[in-house]
Queue: 3 jobs
Job 1
Amino acid sequence: MKDYYYFLGISHDASEEDIKKSYRKLSLKYHPDKNENDVFFADRFREIQEAYETLNDRDKRKTYDQNLENHQKSFRYNIPPSIKTFTANKIHAQKGEEIILNWQTQNADVVKVLPFGLEKAYGERIFKITEFKDGKFQILLHVTNSLLHKTVVQGITITEVFENDGEKFRDKAEDLFRSQPKTAANPSGQPKVFRIIAAVILLLLAIYFLIKSFS
């Protein structure tokens, strides 16, 4: 059973004002329009909306709390969560290649497969990797028993492979000219090639002035 309080990051005795405050904060953070319609953020936004619509309505919240209590009583909350299986049909793949994940967990009321979001205690997900980071794509299974406040995590790393050396060279060359994420060290998000050129120029200038100082 979905834990709406967990979705909103609030306690089970949260006030109406606490619910609204958390909803406003999270809906702004995960709104698809602010995250380039990313699937992960879109799914998270729907979960937040669903939780708010239930907890913000007194009658719906009362019914939900009763169902949640009954679920918790029937659930073995005194046993730590565990991961029975977490597998992928391949750990080496090309961009756009289909990956099939399977998992099965025990004694957990909150199950997340990152970067996708909340899932059932067992299941299957089929997806395609559109982008690797440094040649890798990481998937994490988070399994939580919220009453015991215990979480178990297991990961799978998919490594990028190329059809041939030419494709690998082309991909690396394209990466040099691709705009980078904005950071404190690179506030304008300049491509790697610009920073390499700047570093080479600074090195040549340093060598020039060093030679000049000895002449």
Job 2
Amino acid sequence: MSEENVTKIVTTETDAKSTEVETETTPDVDREPPAAIDSRFLYVDVAAQRAKQLRRGAWPRLKELAPNPETGVRPSPNSKLERIAMLEVDTQKIYYQVPDPNSSTESKS
């Protein structure tokens, strides 16, 4: 790994049921792949959070959208950012955390 710095982009919502999506700039060589997403609702939530990150300027993690090693120029995506986010989730490039429902800050009476 040539990069020393690890930067994280973490998107959080105020809702206690939202999903946190983490992306890093370092390769996933020493990380195990994320757990498979069985729920279609969790899939949509993770892909939507990732699409929001892409709209705000995060780089796509797909191999076909990687920069050219000689020039450093990234190809322009042919798909919408939502489709790119879904492909990233499908290929397990996105790591996510589901918050614990018991750790709610609100007290219920």
Job 3
Amino acid sequence: MLSHKSKGTKVPTLSQATHTYYKRRLNGLTSADNYLKTMKIIIKILGDKPVDKIGVTDVNKLIDHLVQKKKKNSTINSYKGRLETTLREMVQAGHIDPLTATKNLREGDKDIHILNADMEDKLIYKFKELDFLLHKQISLIGLETGLRWCEMFEVRKRNIDLNYGQITIESRKNYTQLTIPLTEKAASLIYDHLGFCDDNDRVFPFDNKWKYGGWNIARRDLGYEKTEWYVPHITRHTACTRMLQKGVPLPVVSNWLGHKSIAVTMRYAHFVPSIMNQYKELLNK
């Protein structure tokens, strides 16, 4: 995490640091809402103290609180990551010095859930029945590409090259740009929206309120209202798993989805025993 040494003349509080990071990095992005909501909860847990007073003890306090609330390890790591990202902004601003980050909690395979073919059919049919056709289309694009919904919401017309069948994602979780191929189905779904856009317009100009508004109605009607893992991100988990099931090599899937390491992709391997079985014969020789 971060040391207690302040370099600035006036050290911001955590809420001020949150506002600074939001204005500099997230203003106008669809991911901003989630960031602000998460930081509001973190500030409530830790207090709105100056950032040079936040250390490893505070991180452990945050983790312990979320564990008591029975949050998943992946959720706890996400909260911890938001706090660390905010404080790194303060390091860059010269208010505090960096300290070695605490380790993330182990995220087991049980944290990953996917849609099987029947579940997918029911979800898509439900969107059609509700006349939520845009939710249907974005779900299908997510299943074809593995893109996060927030990434799709930030795609501009200029980011799409149908001649080469590819799409470039500029606004990503780890702030690195990524270009991936488009399947014929994904390209066809996206093409329907391009005629309404100028080059710098967002192809899907939606936000999290719109996303969850439609998704949660379908979720309720399908009987998953109290199922924590039945969220839009499940389309990304499903896409990753299906790539592996169809024989796409692990390093390719890892690069395609923009995972920070192949270890993240390996969490999906238990869905695809054939990944390990294909090497069994080598061991039998």
